């Protein structure tokens, strides 16, 4: 890596002076980025970084996929429609058909596709609304350390106290229950069931249960397949809608297109965003079982729900799922990642760490939370972009592009190991 | 216009079968659109439409501006960063500097720029949060027929009962007060003031008052400049934050960059989205007076808050505001539109209509609400895209691209007049 | 009046040391009361006071009515049941029958009688619940300067900001609308109607409208009969339940048993408490039109809803209403009170005062709010108990026992006039 | 027992025709009661019943205590003040002093005494308000199967779904946690602690934790002393106010004046009502640690907070607590009751029952819920008044007057055993 000439303050002056104090990533990674390809990203000073962050899971297909780029350029050149709300367009139609043919039909799934505003939180808000409308109930059960978004509806089912407090108002109509493995020796399903079946529990029969199969922001907590099945059964038994927020864990992140596939469950509603747009353009969809698609026209809407460049890239992205190859590669890389994590934990007992997650959504939970931040800072200096998650930011979280090659993975993990050594003073 | 061969059902089959029942525009305008340029848009059958809708105000600069297109293609070709959350990027920096130099400094305005998720409702949610945090109060006063978005926070300050009911839960922490001219002979400012100063009124001192200077979805109700000034004074007197939601009326729609400029007020917070992205790509910013920019890092965030293609087009769009020319042209065209509206109202007394709005955000409110829908449907058949708004969908709403030429305006208005004649049976 | 030997602090030591800071009346009237009869009350030092406060309207029949006393003693002597929840008892049965025969039947009213917990706020809570259950709606409209009680449900429809703030949480599911004559030149009915009929107003169709015909705590604001009729019609037109909170204005206070009788309206629900128990014992009833009495058994309950000593005194109190005499006397005394008030206002222009109220529920609203407190304090020194009300405590409020004789009234009003003179320095 | 001549419908006609459908006890016990003494109660037909219900715990000192009766008669005869809001009166002062001398000082407790409206729910509402005010937080944690009252504030911390649903609106600002022994093998303290210490748990730091040491309506669930201590420690550690709702379990019901004495904890706030008034007259007090008594004057109030006849009886009732004798007798009778319950459970395995509770607040939880109702109905026919509790009404609940003699207890329990035999068909 080349030596930087400017100090951080000089480099980041524009952002420090003009942008709101709410900015966060530009604080931890004080650089001005300019160009990116695949799993690599470069700043204005020519420094190259390996990207184990991938747009917080929005760049599963890496930066600037060649085919997507070409299709976008071609589309722009021919004055393709950029913005269309929910008007019929050729790209919207083509995406819908590909999604049916490549994703839904082969998996025997039947969902209506809703296009909310192009953000994950918007998809979650639409899911909560339709669940409440369909059931006539108001409560939604979410789980400890859940993250579903920052608008008031989604925030009410999010666990993080700093983020909840940011609402500025008490958050209502939600109940937080313990996620899988929340407490050693406590069966969290039994607990949930007890609250549901006891008419004196103080918890009303909910409209829905919403969950992430792997909690991204909450610390890369992966629910067991058995736990997911039990939640699904419980939903069926009590006539509760099951919403899977697959915004971060979906689109192949854990090895299958939907993260819940290995659990063999069929959620009533699925939220997708982040990587659904293929190249990182804003897009979101909400999948709703046909019997629950009881919206009135325009009952939920949003100006940017017709982002056609995103539809175009999204359709191209779906071609990855025409065969099983992509899925198998992810799982293989996931295994390699897990092995390396286990080795690191063993080699560096000073971390007092635990392995977390599955597929290419894994992390190392540090015994001392502050180590995670220090390791990420050190890694950035060495050319690796990787961030923390968890309630105490105690988890180093790995979200490399799914199509990263073995060389890239190894190179990134080597930087990580060097960073660990430095932080531990070895 | 060429005759269509397919019937509506055949054309729209993909959308009817695969998309959620929530879709709305594709019902009223049963066509599959493919290409667009300036104020024109074409469907797959080659039909050409004049666009008086402009992406619900997201396409103030028309479809597919040449310079924006070229910059985007160039950017993509060079692997420019597409997605970056709130990391520092060259395009984000360049936009921030242009926004300061072209918009803020010449208007003597001082705001910190926040990038929330790239939708209007996300900007509004961020505005409500920071207002509540800064004041420590929970209530926000909004106005009758306000529209601020569809996520729970924004929806709570939105007036429309169909949309509110869609929340599926009671909406809290907001009080609805009468907008300017809500009731003939009633001074709505006096009314608002009485509620604020009477400690027995049942209305708590609010964190903020949020308003649109011209209510788009609510029926193109334009507040008077005097009324806006009074609201601003009242906010100062009572130490209430004034939030102007300029998502639809901003970015030049009413003739000045910010819609509130003629009122000579300085809101504490301004929400911008829709046309801020220039070419119709999702983008939103929240402007916050420096003294109120009390966010903690990441206290509000969102995956798509770094949509760099949008920043690129946004920066290009700002060049329109380097001189007064663009603004003057809008006002001139606005005057022409108003004159034509007045003539139509006079010529067709059967409409029992009223003129509404200002700049290039105008409408005709029909005495019989159903006429508005019929006229729009008729206009679509004749090649004009125009939609309704208002609590009873009683207003035909004109939002042509701001750079439409006189010929386009006239052509569109001629189609409108023909449609009126047909509907009235003349 | 005899000179007191102890200073206030010595007298009130027990209360100051042992009782919570929430105590209020014992601050303004620093005396320890011991005995009372009719409109007179004596403290431990033998000082006699004329009572123009009457237990905040709970002692309409004066202190210690002889017949009630005797019946109570007889009842206690014979081991009559004191406490019975809602079990059948002879006294409960007898009260129910008297209430039907003396109150309901002669007025052509048909209500089911509910016994909630024995407080006004409990009656209001029960009224709000049943209205929401029956309509399936959550919003309740109340009026500026309304007072309906201090528990969270009742507080949410109460206007006073100090009291609302005491909730410690935001209050929901209610909308405050302007009471009769709230703003000069503003037709508050037209305003309410506009909000109801405009589907974009931001105010949902409510379950109920709740009102006091004369607002006691809110400043003795008496609604006009025409205004009440219009509210009642509006409720019918929109299928909204009308709740009259007659806790303070009912039981003859304004000259008729129910305060709404002169308006010739028939509320769907009526709340009664305070003087319904005759001698000042805790009791409350909620009257519900049979078609809305859709409670499940025990769906609202309370331990002290069977206060049989109160039922006994209540039944005795109803005998006052067997003929029109009592009602006529109240109205006559009310006229005398009004004439005196008008004379005082005229004679003492320094008060800059307005007359308020009707029947024996009247007040003088002072131009300078602080005068009211000073006059009441002065009056107490001279042997008259009278308190203030209104959002700024600006109203001197007269609530003498309804059976006070002319001599008592005059004596009290003379003390008041002397107090006015002293305060004005005349 | 004598044979009744009237059938139930004839007897209860007045109540069926005139009273609201909300009435409950008069359905299960179709009789009109007239007279009562000690632990006996008689209906109009001369039938005698043993009272194991004691006004739902409001008649701990039995019906019509001679001394209380005499004091009341004397008081009434001398025109003692009946109703006084929170004015100073001799009876209020005397009660305050006795309460300090007999209850607080000997127990080394220091509380300010607040007089809210004279109902348990009113005391709870005042407790919740002051806890929220003092801490500036809004959430209150309550427990599964808690019952705290029927007004909206108290209902929000009550567990029963039928009662909660009766609110007609969603209930906010509360979180329900598992009570002691809620689930076998689950440590509910560890659970609560985990939610508090995890900043991602979705449960905010609460203003207060509210609990009953023995849940009356919830099924006579008695918390262990160790569990109570742990909750109290947890409150201290997290700076949370501990509210003990001793409305039903207090005033000696469990063997000590306060139910929490054996746990050696010192709640920050204590709610008392029911038996505090001695003879069954409405009364309630809220005890607040002096440092938290931060009320403004009148910030919570209520018309009937000065029920002087109740104060008089309350003071007399306190004399029971001047020595330890009364307490020891209760504990002895409690032991006898527990032994009998255990014997019954053993003798009648068909009940598949469990013993519940402590002191003279005990119950038998039936394996088949419907047995409880049948046994109570049978017992009523045989002259024993006893009711059910629990989420499925599965618990036969014993609340005899505390001063019942051994003969009465045995007689009642014999009737119960006969009823069990009949129901089980033995």
From TrEMBL, chains A, B, C, D:
It holds the Pfam family Aminotran_3. PROSITE patterns: AA_TRANSFER_CLASS_3. It comes from Lentibacillus juripiscarius. Pathway: Amine and polyamine biosynthesis; ectoine biosynthesis; L-ectoine from L-aspartate 4-semialdehyde: step 1/3. Keywords: Aminotransferase, Pyridoxal phosphate, Transferase. Its cofactor is pyridoxal 5'-phosphate. Belongs to the class-III pyridoxal-phosphate-dependent aminotransferase family. The keyword Transferase applies. It comes from the Bacteria. This is Diaminobutyrate--2-oxoglutarate transaminase. NCBIfam families: dat (TIGR00709), ectoine_ectB (TIGR02407), PRK09264.1 (NF006733). The keyword RNA-binding does not apply.
